[in-house]
Amino acid sequence: MKRALILLAPIFFLFSCEEKKEVDLLVMNAKVYTVDKDFSIQQSFVVDDGKILEIGEFGKLELRYTPKQTYDVDGKFVFPGLIDAHAHFYGLGLQQQKVNLTGTKTFEEVIKRLQSYQKEKKSTFIVGRGWDQNDWENNDFPTKDTLDILFPNTPVVLTRIDGHAMLVNSRTLQLSGISEQTKIEGGEIQQKNGELSGILIDNAMSLVGKIIPKPTKKDKISALKKAEETCLDYGLTTIDDAGLDRATIELIDSLQKTGDLNIRIYAMIANSPGNVEYYLKNGIYKTPKLNVRSFKVYADGALGSRGAALKKPYSDKENHFGAMLINPKKFKKLAQKISQSPFQMNTHAIGDSANVVVLKTYDSLLKKEEDRRWRVEHAQILDQPDFNYFSENIIPSVQPTHATSDMYWAESRLGEKRLKDAYAYKKLLKQSGKVALGTDFPVEEVNPFLTFYAAVSRKDTSGYPEGGFQKEQALNREEALRGMTIWAAYANFEEDEKGSIEQGKYADFIVLDRDIMTIPLKDIPKTKVLRTYINGEQVN
Q1: For 253-299, what is each residue's pLDDT tens digit?
Q2: Whole-number Å distance between alpha carbons of 277 and 374
Q3: What secondary structure does DSSP assign to 142-210, as a single string?
Q4: How crowded is the C-beta side of 347, counted as CA atoms within 13 Å?
Q5: What is the distance between the alpha carbons of residues 205 and 32, in angstroms, rounded to a whole number?
Q6: CB count, 10 Å around CB of 226?
Q7: Which residue ranges in the chain fall short of pLDDT 70?
Q8: CA 13 to CA 8: how far, in whole Å?
């Protein structure tokens, strides 16, 4: 008997070797935050054909699989690929082709950047973005006077950082047909001493948009690739682009199919009659890297430019309430049309007045509906009773760095009482069960670790304020990570394919140089991404 077992041993050994499955990749010696239901931590996993095949201990996986490639993480930290639930991916790329005015501390600095740009480019039409008068010593809106002197014959269009206001010169106003008598619904053409100041708010900007030179196809492709490069370096594997037209969506699709664009895009369709008609007729469009199943609608403007629609006047501007960018009756009609389709509706709402219009409309249409997951983008300022409308079917999609950027001046706009129910992420989470987290880049920085840091600490990167801004609204680290992964995936109807490191899901994951779940809060913004993987392939 003993002799028979000895003779059979090589046969058993050969059989066990034959049973080992060949796979593409084995990731080992890691601290893997799976972000599964139990928030379990593992040490190794196997990837094959672009998906997670199995997760567990290295010794057990080694016995079962023969990897074509083994990645020893050397004790570093692995997380699911990060999802930015609200950003402007294409806009980020285009901005890099314009005059960058982000971070300017005075209007004089804006002028210097314009002069430097024009000296180099000699452009016949100057377009810039990123100024924010709230960062200047003089917080008043600038005027066109200096632009008229320096650029009398060249159109100049300078969009505020939030995308809801712009400063233009007289040449631009002339070409756009804007005069002191021009009227616009859902916006404002500001005047000073009876003359146009050059400031246009919200819908008024569309009058100028018609004359801005359109980017070429080459410009668009360059913008998309540049934006991808930036995002992948920060560990972002899926971007929810909040407002794309059909032509850009189709360009993204073509680049993804040829392998020229690897990042996954959740495309919110820009609300224009042509876009709405086309996609409602043709239905949801889904590929492994592109998901087109939602419409992006603007209810109001932004708080920084006093365009957010408030129930009571702004504290720092008498009898000024902001403005709805879409008539409430038109909004409800559009919502009814979308509710009769399988599409999701994602509405930008900043002010408490805009939020209640959106929430009541959603609630009236979705009460008898299951699993529609309509989103309120920003959900920034809410009246106390209106929190009750949120649920797993009406999801808040918020951007934590807005709180730490706006905290310096938000109280002057809202007053102390209203501020208490603004940027209230913990309260929104308790009501809805999930929050999707994003950056709103290029309004804020692309860096998702600033999102994580702001959500948890409620401080800016200097550590201000010491106790955190309205710290009771901070998320804990697990909540913040879920908001940037599995909850963001849920908000996109994609939780079965991404958002966690689990069997059967896409092998989208990142490797970090430090453990953001345990390090001191102040060190989180220093986090570096060592590698980014999409479909099990390294992309940065």
Answers
A1: 999 999 999 999 999 999 999 999 999 999 999 999 999 999 999 99
A2: 19
A3: P-SHHHHHH-SSS-EEEEETTSSEEEE-HHHHHHHT--TT---TTEEEEEETTEEEEEEEEGGGHHHHT
A4: 27
A5: 47
A6: 16
A7: 1-18
A8: 9
> Which of 365, 372, 368, 418 lies closest to 395, judged by CA?
372
Tokens representing residue 184 in the block: 């616009």
> What is the predicted pLDDT for the residue at 18?
55
Q: Is the distance from CB of 421 to CB of 396 less than 8 angstroms?
A: no
DSSP state of 123: -
- How far apart are the C-alpha atoms of 193 and 539, rounded to whole Å? 55
Is the preceding omega at residue 67 within 30 degrees of 0, hence cis?
no
Structure tokens at 431: 């009501």
CA distance 157 to 142: 13
Place of tokens 């249409």: 365
Distant-in-sequence, close-in-space partners of 416: CB < 8 Å, separation ≥ 6: none
Rounded Cα distance between 218 and 326, Å, is 33
pLDDT of residue 12: 45
How is residue 264 annotated by DSSP?
A: E
The helix/strand count (H/E) of the chain reads as 18, 25
Neighbours of 536 (CB within 10 A): 22
DSSP conformation class of 141: P
Question: For 234-255, how does the pLDDT look when each residue is reduced to its tens digit (9 = 90+)?
Answer: 999 999 999 999 999 999 999 9
pLDDT value, residue 19: 83
Closest CA to 170 of 198, 143, 193, 190: 198
Whether residue 422 contacts residue 398, with contact meaning beta carbons closer than 8 Å, is answered with no
Supply 463's token pair: 């550590």
* Helices 217-233/246-257 angle, 10° precision: 70
Q: Are 92 and 442 in contact (CB under 8 A)?
A: yes
**60 CB neighbour count, 10 Å cutoff:** 11
Provide the 3-class DSSP secondary structure of residue 133. helix
